[in-house]
From TrEMBL:
The keyword Membrane applies. It comes from Galactobacter valiniphilus. GO terms for cellular component: plasma membrane. GO terms for molecular function: ABC-type transporter activity. The chain crosses the membrane at residues 44-66, 97-118, 148-170, 177-200, 206-234. This is ABC transporter permease.
Length: 411
């Protein structure tokens, strides 16, 4: 009879854990590689030099035009300025125009650094080598974006000496100027993220560059066009009443007309009595159609220039805070960016808010300073669009890829 034998058990060998790379280490690796590649290019420094010269030339030209305008507004006899009290100084106007130029041309430069960041590697066959390492798709996107953003910020830094020329014109509001620089830096980061996301989602470098410029144009020029179309198609009924003379004023004018008819030589050149100017809000209501601007202001708020103006323009002068209509738009007290902010906030309030007389009641228009800022809405729209594009690009970087476009080079 055989006895069963017990097979000795061996301890299980430890399962080798998959190698890991810290998130920041992966992002830093991609960032350093991408930035070194850019810094090795001689054309990079040539572009910086040309950019400095162009911005300096624009700033000097704008400054000369602004100073000439302010000089012509001085009374030659008294030497006193004819500008309204509280007007924005020449230096501030010069800086605002120059920073708007930097944002406009920066919107053209930023896609250059971002739109080819990943699609160029994919076309050259080097992206597959990077994907075969421990680097994740998210780390590739973060690293490429940081490198593109830093490259675009270098152009903003190169423009600082030229922008400082505006200080020689005097009356700069330094807090507002620093905030403008911060907003421009954020906008360049958003545009770079859009370019990197499109670059990750496309296979052809040329297509990614064109698509990025189309999205940038949609945020800049496209928002203006869509807002104009909406103003012509989206309307609402506005109700208001007219101001009319009080009974006392009507009686005074009637008596004055009778006296002038009786003795025209005596009363023809004399003004109406003061009580004839008394008016009140009438009860008759008139309705008409006006653009419902409060419904589509969020579209215009996504414009990078509107975000810059609403977030960084100098505080409103107390004279302009009553919001009593569009007469103050582009006034000297508001400045360039301040005028843009006033116009957008008046659009946000809607046409009904500008009515001062309705059903016998005198209404007070809302103060523009009390209107909710629109730049968080505009920046939020930009970030949502950027997140959707980056998310789409990240899915295209996940390996193994289930499907590749025809003609795509892997390695």
């Amino acid at each position: 009879m055989s006895t069963p034998t017990q097979t000795p058990t061996r301890p299980h060998a430890p399962t080798p854990s998959a190698p890991r790379l810290g998130h920041l280490d992966g992002v830093g690796t991609i960032f350093s590689l991408e930035l070194r590649q850019r810094l090795r290019s001689r054309g990079w420094y040539v572009m910086l030099g040309l950019w400095f010269v162009v911005v300096l030339g624009v700033t000097l030209a704008v400054g000369a035009a602004v100073r000439s305008s302010y000089t012509s507004s001085v009374d030659p006899e008294t030497g006193l300025s004819l500008m309204p009290p509280g007007s924005v100084g020449a230096g501030q106007i010069q800086f605002e125009l120059a920073i708007a130029f930097v944002l406009g041309f920066g919107s053209l430069i930023a896609p250059v650094f971002a739109a080819n960041a990943i699609s160029g590697d994919r076309a050259g066959g080097t992206l597959a080598i990077v994907q075969a390492t421990l680097v994740t798709p998210g780390q590739i996107l973060w690293g490429k974006w940081l490198a593109a953003w830093v490259a675009s910020l270098a152009f903003l830094v190169a423009a600082l000496p030229s922008l400082a020329v505006a200080a020689f014109s005097g009356e700069l509001r330094w807090g507002s100027c620093l905030l403008m620089l911060l907003v421009v830096a954020v906008e360049l980061g958003v545009l770079c993220a859009i370019g990197v996301g499109i670059s990750a989602g496309t296979s052809r470098p040329l297509f990614s560059i064109l698509a990025t410029y189309l999205v940038v144009a949609a945020l800049g020029l496209g928002t203006l066009i869509v807002t104009g179309v909406a103003a012509m198609t989206v309307h609402e009924n506005v109700r208001s009443s007219q101001m009319e003379p009080t009974p006392e004023a009507s009686k005074a004018m009637l008596e004055w007309d009778e006296k002038m008819s009786a003795d025209p030589e005596k009363y023809a050149d004399l003004p109406y009595p003061p009580e004839a100017d008394d008016v009140r809000c009438g009860t008759e209501v008139t309705e008409w159609e006006a653009p419902a601007t409060e419904r589509f202001t969020w579209l215009l708020a996504a414009n990078p220039f509107v975000v810059l103006a609403d977030a960084a323009a100098p505080p409103l002068d107390p004279v302009l805070q009553d919001g009593s209509g569009y007469a103050y738009f582009a006034s000297p007290q508001a400045g360039i960016l301040g005028s843009v902010r006033m116009g957008v906030r008046q659009m946000q309030a809607g046409p009904q808010s500008q009515v001062t007389c309705l059903e016998g009641k005198v209404l007070t228009p809302p103060k523009l300073s009390e209107q909710a800022p629109v730049w968080p809405v505009g920046l939020g729209v930009q970030l949502l669009l950027t997140a959707a594009i980056v998310g789409w690009g990240r899915r295209r970087l996940v390996t193994p890829a289930g499907h590749l476009a025809s003609g795509t080079r892997v390695a």
